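At this stage, I put together a protein sequence along with its fold in token form, as given directly below:
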Amino acid sequence: GTVDLGKGLTEEQRRAVSKDMEGLKIKYELPTPDGVRKRQYRVLEVRRKPAKEEMINVEGANISVVKYFMKQYGVSLKYPNLPCLWVGSRDRCTFIPIEFCTMMSQPLPRRKKLPDEAIATMIRQTAVKPLDRQKKIMEGLQRNNEKYKNDPYAKEFGISLSGTMTKLTGRILDPPSIEYRDNGKDKNIVNINKTNPGKWFQDKNTYLNGADVSNWAVLDLAQLNDGQYKEVVQGFVTVGKENGIKFGGVDKVMKVRASMKDMDEVLASIEDHLVRIGHHFQAAGTKLDFVLIIFAFKAGSLYDKIKHLGDMKLNISTQCCLKANLYKGGNLSKQVVANVCMKINSKLGGINHVLSKGCRPNILKRPVMIMGADVSHPAPECRSFKPSIAAVVASVEPKAVNYEVQVRIQDMGLESNEEVIKDMKEVTRNLLLKFFEKNKGRKPEKIVMFRDGCSEGQFLTVLAKELMAMREACMELEEGYQPPITYLVVQKRHHTRFFPSDTNKYRNGNALAGTVVDQGINHPTEGDFYLLSHEGIQGTSRPCHYQVLWDDSDFSADELEVLSYYLCHLYSRCTRAVSYPTPTYYSHLVADRARKHHNELASFDGGSTSGGSMELTDNQKRDIKKAVEEGVKKAMYFV
């Protein structure tokens, strides 16, 4: 509804306006009896108190903003309940009433983050189809060439540019076949269509290992009516049954209702709701399996708080979803419910799908630990008070679908981001112990690491430090234990694009999933290859660049290419091949989630402090670090 300006703003509204206006320029026009005073200011924040309560110091005496304007300019404020804007410099207290301000037309300041919806719209608008992208590149090339052709220096030195793209020979790897649960009656192996790879359909197959969800609760924040509520619960029961999850029926579900109208209220009460749900099942002597939380609209701060409470404080599995997504096109969408079920099954320790036995790479036929690692850095403006977060995941079973997790918080250099994972030895040691425990005392015979987020300039530093740390961890666990380690770096941030010149492409012109280029544009001595493992739906596909920095096992190029490609099919959230190998993708998700936990604990974004830099004491930093690194009890909580 519309905001009644006479009454002022709620804290949630004030926070939203403040976040939007921070750093923007406004025009201030004050009508006084002597004419209009005009100024321009940059906004620092929207103050918490209304103008009638905001006190300023004038000649040693405290006076409210409302009284000051009356006394100084003879102006009475129309909206004394609205807060003031704090403008200008942080060293001075310049507070001006909102009613005299207008927003100026201006580009978004570079330091300011776009809202998520705006980012999504921007990506959709700026994505360029492969053929158009190719045309653009060629036009740029021709323009540059014209310059060089007539440049006297280029002529003198005999420099000329070719006007065409490099022609390469690529190969297309055969896709794997995917295995589901063997129910005896129909075939449980799904073959991926070679002419249209990158995706498959589960059809009537059920998850290889379906979870049992007898006791669950629905926390409804979207004001569903009774009919809708029953429909949603029944939808999950039905779709769950088709896919192999046993959900308890409507009578088994606990229902809790709350509203998102007053955001502050719901942020304050969400913990009580979750605790109440936990107690209800405890009292009945049963174990709560998970809570389905239905949002009325996207709310990042609430989501972060729920994940922090569920993952770390209360140890409850939570699954959030939007009412608008559940009811796509007006009716309950079976497809969306099925997609959510894939996440629920993974979180509860189930296995959705695996590579079929017939096509499993040889590497996976002996005990091997596949690792993924990523370091997530804070935005440049937060460097002084937010740390970098390193996440490492490792597979603990032969199918390479379930992963154990280690998180480390590392303060970063103020000048540049610290890329090396500092505590790699301890991390590897813990993961090896988990592998040992899960495999009844078997040790991995080989280790393969897919390392993300590492630029060329840091290859040697990262390799030297992390590889040594991994070796030391092995030696520490058992004398003489030195499994061969293969260390690959995965990069997506580069400017190489492939445009197929034959018919091996999708309808939109992107290269087929499984396209590998390992000769022609590669490093002459280091083993590296480009692999496009996903179907590009939007814009032009970006192939992944894999660089083999170290390989004790002497794998052939083909073995590593096939392993990488097949690992892209094990991402449990969808029946598609993704663009990164699953372990790398998971380490990315873990780092993102750990960042949310850290923000909640330090109450940055949306917490108790606003603006300015948040100075935590060393003790606070130590406690937060300990809490985040202790990690989450439940495995696969991040999917």
